[in-house]
Every structure is written in structure tokens, then in C-alpha cells.
């Protein structure tokens, strides 16, 4: 039997646009949803015109997407209000089943790219009086919510007089935007200097295709924001980190106005705050280079943000001294020394670890910092058992960005593949500090030459005054 496709409008938030396609594709594959494009989506536009074979599929997609604001069953699309009305009037009878006297309703008027006053919105709304609406108007949680949207393009400062597009339809489902608010860092109990923002953490969890009951790991866990996102989607979460003070909530507070950390600030307190204690397995103080997991331990996903060495150190336990031995009497109180853990080595270790400890088809989702001018796919970390399936950029400055990489484990590794050479990827940290030093030096020279110039001007003026006297 041939499938019956229906048209829907997906309306997105204009935030982290670069992650949108990857998130939706990941969720379609997770839920095995058939979706086809009615029109090729344009990168900067907030809407997609798509088709699903069932409303349940559209609802399922919306139930997990953080990029999506609304999903609307499309009843009409036009480039003028008159055209929209004539389209809707021709289909009027098709709408009757949606409205009967027992069903409350509301019509929302939205504009994108141009502001309208409430009165202007109401006057647009009144033009829909021919719809067969019989029930009562209910502004909060109506049975049927209709949406009328005028799209004026992306150039907010100079919108056209008339909209480019007008859409009308029935709201089917809203995305998960409210979860971003719930997990806001402003109200979170425990945060650190490199805590990941909730929207990006949730996007990472969606890239990892986390499902209820999964076991996931963040081996550079910090304040545990990625664990919170994964736990929200039902995963059981583990983390580890080299920083004892961080995991015990004893570092300097990250909030400007906070003088001292509260006694109970830690990853578990965050889990409690969001009622996710049941999903928390543990966080352990551990250097990533000394792996303590049983070889048979398999995670459903690994999501992580390794250190870049800019706002936190890239260190591992070790010493430059050869044949260093800790004497018996110092063993109990010995605090191990740390040495530099370069970015190429961190990513080599991470990919080798994932090839070993991910289940086949499990995902490794991690950030990777780059200099934009140097970027090409060849500079990304690779492993023969991990296939790169998504790669999205988040610009950090004019010259730097980080890329969210999603790898899928395709097969178990051979013994040689567990001992691959250090990768030849660029050390972001080295270049970052070299460039910073160069630009500081340039600034110092500029300041010195400016001072010299001013001094010379001053002396010339002074001499001129003295001669005049
Ligand atoms: C970018 S931060 C992670 C932040 C975290 N996603 C959060 O939301 O708070 C990187 C973390 O890696 C940890 N780290 C650095 N070197 C490490 C190592 N050798 N082994 C384990 N963790 C390490 C740091 O202590 C830091 O907490």
C-alpha cells in the first residue's frame, strides 16, 4: 500500500542554526521516522516544509528536538492574505471535523522579521471569521490551536512592507525549548568555569541518540552538565575527571557575586535539583590516561568536552624525571605530579577508548577546537573503527571555533587498532598561545612607539615655548 504523506511546517528557533540539520537527522534515525522535504530548506530561514506519513511521527520528533519551536500541520501557504483566504475557503469543508461545539480553540498570530502591535494582530485574526469554528475560545491549553504566521525574512532592520510568505495550520506539537529554561545555568546549583550551556548539552545528547536506560560516560566531566542532559533523556550517567577540587565542589566559585561555594555543591546536587538522582551512577576522580574500566565495559554513548588548555589545564599524571620512585613512607600522602597532556594525544586516547568501550553502533559525541583558517576535514581526529557521521561548527571568535563531532562505532578494534600512533592533528593550544603572545607583543610595540611619539611632540612644544620666552 502506498504511503499517505501529509504536509507540515517545522518552525525552528534561530539559535545554533548550524546544529539544526544534524539534530533532526539524528532524531529521525533514532526513532526510525520517515520524513521527506517538500522543499529544500534554506540555511538561514527559520522554517522547513516537510512531509510525514503520520502525525505521531511529527509529535515524536518534536518531543525530543531542542532546535524546533513548533510543528504545524500545514493547511495553507500563500504570499498574500487574500490568496491565503481563498485557499482556505476552498478547503473549508475539510476543516469541519477539527471543530465542533465541544472543542475549545484559539488562533495565534505570529510574525517573523517585523513587529506587530496587539491591535494589528487582532485585526488579522478577525479576517478568519469564515472558518467553521463552533467551540469556545480558550487561551490556555485549548483543544485546537491554529497558527497564522507572516514571514518577513531575516533582515530585521529593513523588513519589506508585505510578507514574503504566509502560513496557516494546526499546531501539532512544540519542541523541547522549555527544557533549556529548566536547565538554565543561572539557577543551577553547581557550575564551573567551563560548564556547557544547556542547549548545547541537550543537542549533544540528541547527537548521541540517548534512549531511556542507556549507560553513558563523560570522561572529562567537570561540573557534569552533559550528564544532566543525558539523564533528562533517561540515561544512567557516569563521569570522571582529574580535578579533585572540581568534583568535590571546592574550586573558586564561578559566579561573580558568590564568595564561597555551598557545602553541598557538586554534580550529585545538580541531579537532585532536577529530580534525576535515580539516573546518577557516580563521578570518579581519575586521570583519563589511567583507565580503570574492565575491558568488557561497554557504554551506549560517550559525550564529552575535553580540555583545550585555554581556560583549564591539559594535564595528566606523570613526571619528566626518569626512574622516579616514591619511597614507601611517602606513599600514603603522595600527591602525584602532573605533566602536559597535549591535544593530539587527548584525542588519540579518546578515540581509542571509544573504539574499545563503546558498544557497536554507539556514539562518541565530542567537541574539537580549531583555527578556522586551518580547518579542513583532514585535520580532524580519526580511528578506523569510528565513522564520522556529523560535524557542526560553533564559532567562538573571528579566528577560532569548535566543532561538534559525532562518531559511530562500526566494529570492534583489532589489537593494533588499540595502539595507533599519536595523531598528527594540530595542537590548538600551542597555536592559540603563540598567536596571543604575538598580538600582545605587537600591542606592546605599538604602545611604546605611541609613547615615544607623544614624548617627542611634548619636547618639541616645550622647546618652542622656551625659545619664545
Ligand atoms: C572543558 S572541561 C569540561 C566541562 C564540563 N563539560 C562541564 O560542563 O562542566 C574539561 C575537563 O577535563 C578535565 N581534565 C583535564 N585533564 C584531564 C585528564 N587528564 N583526565 C581527566 N580529566 C581531565 C578538567 O579538569 C575539566 O574539568
Salient structural properties:
alpha/beta; VC0802-like; seven-stranded mixed β-sheet; 469 residues; binds S-adenosylmethionine; 2 domains; Rossmann fold
- Which structural category fits the helices and strands? alpha/beta
Low-confidence stretches are none
Q: What name is given to the CATH topology of the largest domain?
A: Rossmann fold
Number of helices: 12
Q: How much of the polypeptide forms β-strand, as a percent range?
A: 15-25%
Q: What is the percent of helical residues?
A: 25-40%
How many domains make up the coordinates?
2
The coarse overall form would be globular
SSE pattern, N- to C-terminal: EHEEHEHHEHEEHHEHEHHEEEEHEEEH
Rounded Rg? 28 Å
Q: CATH class of the largest domain, please? A: Alpha Beta
Which strands sit side by side, in order, in the main sheet?
2-3-1-4-7-6-5
Distance between the amino and carboxyl termini: 106 Å
Subunit structure: Part of the heterodimeric TRMT11-TRM112 methyltransferase complex; this complex forms an active tRNA methyltransferase, where TRMT112 acts as an activator of the catalytic subunit TRMT11.
EC number: 2.1.1.214
Family: Belongs to the class I-like SAM-binding methyltransferase superfamily. TRM11 methyltransferase family.
InterPro entries: DNA_methylase_N6_adenine_CS, RlmKL-like_Mtase, SAM-dependent_MTases_sf, TRMT11, TRMT11_N
Amino acid at each position: 500500500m502506498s504511503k499517505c504523506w501529509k504536509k507540515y511546517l517545522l518552525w525552528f528557533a534561530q539559535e545554533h542554526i548550524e546544529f539544526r540539520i544534524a539534530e533532526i537527522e539524528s532524531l529521525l534515525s533514532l526513532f526510525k521516522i520517515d520524513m521527506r522535504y517538500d522543499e529544500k530548506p534554506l540555511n538561514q530561514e527559520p522554517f522547513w516544509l516537510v512531509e510525514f506519513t503520520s502525525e505521531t511521527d511529527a509529535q515524536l520528533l518534536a518531543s525530543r528536538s531542542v532546535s524546533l519551536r513548533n510543528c504545524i500541520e500545514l493547511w495553507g501557504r500563500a504570499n498574500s492574505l487574500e490568496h491565503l483566504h481563498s485557499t482556505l475557503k476552498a478547503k473549508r469543508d475539510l476543516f469541519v471535523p477539527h471543530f465542533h461545539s465541544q472543542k475549545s480553540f484559539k488562533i495565534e498570530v505570529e510574525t517573523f522579521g517585523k513587529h506587530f502591535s496587539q491591535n494589528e494582530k487582532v485585526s488579522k485574526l478577525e479576517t478568519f471569521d469564515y472558518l467553521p469554528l463552533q467551540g469556545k475560545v480558550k487561551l490556555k491549553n485549548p483543544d485546537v490551536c491554529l497558527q497564522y504566521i507572516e514571514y518577513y525574512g531575516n533582515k530585521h532592520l529593513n523588513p519589506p512592507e508585505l510578507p514574503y510568505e504566509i502560513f496557516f495550520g494546526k499546531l501539532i506539537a512544540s519542541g523541547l525549548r522549555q527544557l533549556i529554561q529548566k536547565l538554565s545555568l543561572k539557577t543551577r546549583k553547581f557550575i564551573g568555569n567551563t560548564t556547557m550551556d544547556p542547549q548545547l548539552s541537550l543537542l549533544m545528547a540528541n547527537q548521541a541518540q540517548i534512549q531511556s536506560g542507556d549507560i553513558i560516560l563523560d570522561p572529562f566531566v567537570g561540573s557534569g552538565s552533559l550528564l544532566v542532559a543525558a539523564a533528562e533523556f533517561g540515561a544512567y550517567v557516569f563521569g570522571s575527571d582529574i580535578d579533585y577540587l572540581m568534583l568535590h565542589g571546592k574550586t573558586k566559585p564561578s559566579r561573580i557575586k558568590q564568595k564561597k561555594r555551598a557545602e553541598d555543591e557538586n554534580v550529585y546536587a545538580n541531579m537532585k535539583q532536577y529530580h534525576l538522582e535515580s539516573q546518577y551512577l557516580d563521578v570518579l576522580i581519575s586521570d583519563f590516561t589511567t583507565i580503570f574500566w574492565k575491558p568488557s565495559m561497554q557504554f551506549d554513548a560517550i559525550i564529552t568536552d575535553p580540555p583545550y588548555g585555554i581556560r583549564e589545564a591539559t594535564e595528566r599524571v606523570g613526571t619528566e624525571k626518569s626512574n622516579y620512585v616514591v619511597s614507601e613512607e611517602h606513599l600514603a600522602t603522595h600527591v602525584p605530579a602532573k605533566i602536559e597532556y597535549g591535544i593530539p594525544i587527548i584525542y588519540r586516547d579518546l578515540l581509542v577508548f571509544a573504539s574499545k568501550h563503546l558498544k557497536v553502533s554507539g556514539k562518541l559525541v565530542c567537541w574539537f577546537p580549531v583555527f578556522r583558517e586551518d580547518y579542513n576535514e583532514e585535520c580532524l581526529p580519526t580511528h578506523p573503527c569510528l565513522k564520522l557521521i556529523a560535524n557542526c561548527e560553533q564559532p567562538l571568535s573571528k579566528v577560532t571555533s569548535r566543532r561538534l563531532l559525532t562518531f559511530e562505532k562500526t566494529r570492534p578494534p583489532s589489537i593494533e587498532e588499540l595502539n595507533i600512533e599519536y595523531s598528527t592533528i594540530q595542537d590548538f593550544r600551542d597555536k592559540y598561545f603563540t598567536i596571543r603572545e604575538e598580538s600582545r607583543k605587537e600591542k606592546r610595540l605599538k604602545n611604546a612607539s605611541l609613547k615615544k611619539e607623544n614624548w617627542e611632540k611634548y619636547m618639541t612644544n616645550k622647546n618652542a615655548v622656551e625659545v619664545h620666552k
